[in-house]
Every structure is written in structure tokens, then in C-alpha cells.
Amino acid sequence: MGGSQLLLPIFVLFIVRHMHRFYSVLLILLIFSNQLYAQSSSITRILSDVDRKNYVWAIGYGKTLEEADNDAMNALMNTDTNFTSVTKSKSTDVTTSTSSTQEEVFTQESMAISNFYLEDVCREQLPDEKGRKRVLRYVTREDWEARHDVLKGKVEEYIASGQYASNVEDKIRYYTWAHILLQTYPEKEAPIMIDETTYAKHWLVNQLRELLDAIEVKVIGVEQDKNNTSYPYKVFLDFVHDGVPISYLRFGFFDGRGYVYDESVKDGRGVVQVKDVSTKLSLDIDCLYKDLARQLDPSVYVLLQNPVYASSFQGGHKEIEFNQERAKYPKSLNTSADGVESKVNEGLKQIEASYVEVKNEVASIKPYTQMMQNITNVIQKKEDVENIRKYFTDDAWKQYDKIVTSGNPILARTPEYKFINHDSLTICQSIPLKLTFSGNRSFIEDVVFRVNDSTMKIESVAYKLSAKTEQTIMSMGWDDKARLTLVAFLEDYRSAYCLMNIDYINKVFAEDVYIIRGVVLKQSNRKFSDMQPHQYEGTKTVYYQNTKREYLDHLRRCFASKEFVNIRFEECNVAKGYYAKEGIYAVQVKQMYYSNNYADDGILTLAIDMRDEQQPLVRVRVWQQERDVTYDAEQMIDGTVRVANELH
After folding, report:
1. Which residue, 59, 52, 184, is CA-closest to 118?
2. How far apart, in whole angstroms, are the C-alpha atoms of residue 465 and residue 488?
3. Residues 313, 204: contact at Cβ < 8 Å?
4. 19: closest CA among 27, 29, 31?
5. Which of 93, 114, 141 finishes a domain?
6. Are 570 and 245 in contact, with CB atoms under 8 Å apart?
């Protein structure tokens, strides 16, 4: 009896102490039920709008949510809002609303592609039906009716961007995307014009043909490896546009067994391996840039999934002749020999000729040459990498292993070594490599080694900047130290992101660094039910001001999801502080960020404090999707450095 008397107050006390938890659970359940109600209410409201007075919508079906979503988007693109005819397809995979029923199906043949620029399209997941996923895609009537104006603005924007771009690869991308979008624009209503007499559609086709026709791809040499029975021929290629090496390009080709995608060009140099050289090398320059389109412009990306649009322009196809008999292909070819005709070699030499000469020469290059040759031999002959381990410090060996060994390297050209004295280091340039990572993503990179003159150990390994980016800095009238220090910093900075090296980034970012981070939003990979009813999608860039800690936490999360990262710098603009601002540098570059699950390009601006030579610090890091012509490197120096020689 006494035990039962004690039990009641103990139970009451337990309830009182834990009441807040019960309320919390109850509150969560109420919030969740409200979200479900709001979502259900939203879906009911849209589906009940059978006359499409307020919304234009479509339902898609598929085995997965992604398939159902693509189905819904295609149905939405093909929606006829005039309600003049309704045709049922044999397939039941797509359903669009009509005035007579909510689930009438239109055939592709009975509907013209809706002239719809895919912005502000919402989506909801519907309950499964007969084991299939269902997705609702919808847009407000107001946005639907404004779609032609939005589409026209985007086409004109891409045309203007192509006219402004300095690199041929950017011009091709912008013009191709404009051309793709223009296929869905109602030309009869209000044709887009370049000037009073020139139609944009005709102008774009002519521009693309001229650009692609001016790209010359040539075989400069072939090596034959008789031990490689699968792909015995290694083909070295030159890519030039109007005689100038192309900074960056992607292409695909037929290797004798199948089609290979995602091959890379850097500074005009490419290399492929093929089974046979008895026929022409069939090659296709990537004009579509699907990976970037998926991230930067979902409208273009969706259209590119349709073969009609993806194949609407075929000007990137090249047939390259082999100008030598197979029996004469050597086992090892010197691609820089006098007898090799290469416009790329000539172009790169002209670029280097514009550099302001470095005065400090290396006294004896013999030990450095031997070191580089031994490393090259290990790569070329696939020898045990431990044979060269003795040349590296522990940190440098980790860099080499991640930069080179993990990339399944092959030589992209015969190395032409250059040795530059920089304080206590000798910079050894460079070994040009083709690196292939997960998913068969390949890149051409020049690998630079920095050797400590006292210990004769390699202290760091980095990716070399592109020729045009390096030219901007090395052509400046600064002293040797200033130019080499900035080049080395940018090489290390870029390599740190490619290696996903958080420790280095943490080290070079000042504690009070000013960071503006931009994210180009794409279609969410989350469950559709997680999305709020009015969470729109499309091409959007969101900017965040981060503290150093916030930015590093963001990078850790990003790097954890990536198989590889590749960053390229182009269109470089630099400035150097003087007098009270001596030791402060500003750099503005066009940055292309490329990984297995994300891609973007934009303008990166850095303010770098190098007053302590042993510890350079990034004081400002700003990323913008578009170049701001009123904000350049010189203004970064003036605007971020006080007279008292402090940054703010």
C-alpha cells in the first residue's frame, strides 16, 4: 500500500519534469501536419484549375523521381494552352490538364514545343500510382504569359556575352546556348534581330560556323607502344584558333572501339590513345557544355536532352589526317624537336617572349635536370613511384601522390624544363601530363616542382597556371620577386582547391578575411516533398557573406561529396600596391569550377597580403557570377587598403 502511494507522486513529478518534451513533440507534429496540409492544399488548388486560369501545369510519371520530374517538364514544355484539340497517346507516362479532364495526354506530334523559358517552375511530389512515381510541375499564368519576353532576354544576353568573350571556347558556348534557346522562340511574332537587317537565328549559325571552321586540329606526332594491345597509338594533337593556342576546350572522339567523352585541351595541347591509325581520327568539339548548362541554365539543359535540339548544329565535327606511315611511328617521340611542325609550340614561345626576363639565373641546372628526368621516366615507363620518393619532403610527396599518381598520368608533351631561382628555391617547370580521374574525366595539366636549394628536396608540387594567365603577371614591369611570388601563390591556391586541401586554405585565409561566396542554384536533388510550395527554381545565383569558419565548414561539406575538383583561371587582371600599400596584391580572374556534381564559372577577386613573405594571407575573397566592369583589381587595392597600410 505504501509503495502504491509513493508511485502516484513520482509519476506526477516525472510528467511535470518532462512536460516540455511532450509539448515539443506535439509542436513538431502540428508543424509537420500543417506543412502536409499546406502542400496538399497547394496541389488541390492547382489540379482543380482545369481551365488554367491561374496555373499551367503537367504531371509526369517514372520509375524514379528524376524520371517522373523529367517527364513532367517535357509535358509542360509541350502543353497546348489554347485547348483547341486533345489527343491521347498510346503511352500513359505523361498527363497534362485540359478543360475536359485532368489527365488527358498530348502526343509529341500534336503539339509544338511551347516557347517557354524554364524559370519559376514549381514542383510537388504526388502519391505513387500503380507503383510509379508522380511529379507535378506548375507555373503561374502570369509567368507563363511572360515566357517569350524572358526567353528573348536570355537569348540576347547570351549573344552579348559571346560578343564580349575573349576566348573562342566561351564564344562557342554562349552562341550555342543562344542558338538552342532560339529554336523554341516564336520568330513570327517578334523575331530577335542583331541589327535592323540581320536576324539573330541566321547570324548565330554563321558565327558558330566561322568560329568552328577557324579551329584547326592537327596531329603533330604519334607514338607506338607495341606492348599495349588495346590502344597501341598515342596521338599528340594541336588545337589552335586563327593560329593561336586555345586555352581550354573539351572534345570527344572515336578510339577504335567506342566513343570517348570529356577529353581536355589546355594551352592548345591534347593527347589521345587509339586502337588504329589506318583511318582518319574522328573528333567532335564540345559545343553544348551540358555540365555547365545543367548548373547555369536548366532551360538549356532540358532542351539538350532532346536530340532534335542537341543535334541542331553539327559544326564541331573534325576529321584529322594521320600524315605518316604506321611502320615509322617511334616508341618515344620528342614533340619539341625541330622537325615537328606545331603551331602550338610556336604560339607558346611567342607568349613567353612577352615576359619581362627574370634576372636571377640558376647557377647549375644539372642536378635539377636529373631530378626532373627521373620523375618523368617513372611516369612514362610506369615504374615504381618509390624510385623517386627520395626527392620529396613528406608534405610534397602527399601533394605529388594526389596530383599525379592518383590521376593515372601519361605525358601530354615532351617536357621542356625551365629552372627559375626564387629566393631559397628553384622552380622547376614543368612536366605536361594528361590526368584521368573517376568517371573518365581527363585534364591536361603542367606540374611544377619547387626544390629547396639547401636540402635538394622538393618542398611543394602544384598545377601551373595557363599560359595566358601567367603571361599577364610575368609581363608586368615588377621586380622578379613580386612576379614570381604572385605566380607561385596562385598556383598553390588553385592546386589547394583541386586537391581539396582544407589545411592550406585555412592557413592562407586571414582570420578576419572578407568573403563573398556565390552559389549557382540548380534543380534540387532533395525529395520533392521537402520543398515549400512557393520555392521556385531556375537560374539563380545566391550570394553569402561568410566568416572564415563558415566558409571552411562549407568547403568541407562540398569536398566530402566530390570525386574530383578542377579549377581554371583565365582573363587575369592584377594590381600591386605601392608606398604605404607595398606588399599588397589584387588579382581578378575568370574562374571555371568543374567537379563531378557541380560546375560554374564566374569572376574571382582576391586581395592578398604578402608583407610577411613567409605567410601570405588572403584578406578579401569575392566571387561574382558576372564581371563588374566598375570593379577591378586596381580598385580592390584602392578600396580595401587603408593609408595606414591596413586592410579593412
Report:
1. 184
2. 9
3. no
4. 27
5. 141
6. no
DSSP, residue by residue, 570-609: EEEEEEE--GGGTTEEEEEEEEEEEESS-EEEEEEEEEEE
Query: What's the DSSP call for residue 529?
Result: G
- In a domain? residue 149: no
* 3-class secondary structure per residue, 374-441: HHHHHHHHCCCHHHHHHHECHHHHHHHHHHCHHHCCEECCCCCCEEEEECCEEEEEEEEEEEEEHHHE
Helices 2-17 and 19-47: crossing angle in degrees, nearest 10, is 50
C-alpha span between 35 and 37 (Å, rounded) = 5
Tell me which residue range forms the domain holding 439.
Answer: 354-464
Q: Which residues contact 20 (CB under 8 A, 6 or more apart)?
A: none
Q: How far apart are CA 401 and CA 602, in angstroms?
A: 30
Strand, helix or coil for residue 240: strand
The answer to whether residues 371 and 394 belong to one domain is yes
**Residue 119 confidence (pLDDT):** 60
pLDDT digit string, tens, across residues 500-513 = 999 999 999 999 98
Check whether residue 55 and residue 69 sit in a common domain: yes
pLDDT in tens, 123-138: 888 999 889 999 998 8
Contacts 24+ apart (CB under 8 A), 614-618: 615/507, 616/485, 616/489, 616/508, 617/508, 617/509, 617/510, 617/513, 618/493, 618/508, 618/509, 618/510, 618/513
Residues in the chain: 648
Candidate ranges 209-213, 524-528, 629-633; pick with highest mean pLDDT: 209-213
Cα–Cα distance for residue pair 446/501, rounded to 1 Å:
19
State the pLDDT at residue 81.
52
496 and 637: one domain? yes
Alpha carbon distances (Å) from 201 to 12, 112, 301, 515? 79, 19, 19, 41
Angle between helices 467-474 and 343-353 (to 10 degrees): 20
Taking CA atoms, 386 is separated from 374, 383, 429, 634, in Å, by 12, 9, 22, 47
Residues 524 and 630 in one domain: yes
Q: Are 106 and 286 in contact (CB under 8 A)?
A: no
Rounded to 5 degrees, φ, ψ at 126 are: -100, 160
Rounded CA gap, 443 and 195, in Å?
40
- Its pTM stands at 0.77
**Hunting for cell 636529373 — which residue is that?**
370
640 and 514, same structural domain? yes
Q: Is the Cβ–Cβ distance between 266 and 41 less than 8 Å?
A: no
Residues 648 and 519 in one domain: yes
| Amino acid at the residue 73 | M
Cell (9 digits) for 60: 509526369
Task: Show which of 110, 141, 172 is a domain's final residue.
Answer: 141
User: Going by C-beta distance under 8 Å and a sequence separation of 6 or more, which residues neighbour residue 342?
Assistant: 220, 238, 335
Note whether 255 and 273 are within 8 A (CB): yes
Q: Quick check: is 320 in a domain?
A: no
- Give the span between the Cα atoms of 433 and 414, in whole angstroms: 9
The backbone region for 645, taken as left when phi is positive above 0, alpha when psi lies in -120 to 50, beta otherwise, is left
Q: Is residue 264 part of a domain?
A: no
Q: Which amino acid is located at 27 in the chain?
A: L
Query: Region 384-399: what's the mean pLDDT?
Result: 92
Residue 55 sits in the same domain as residue 38:
no
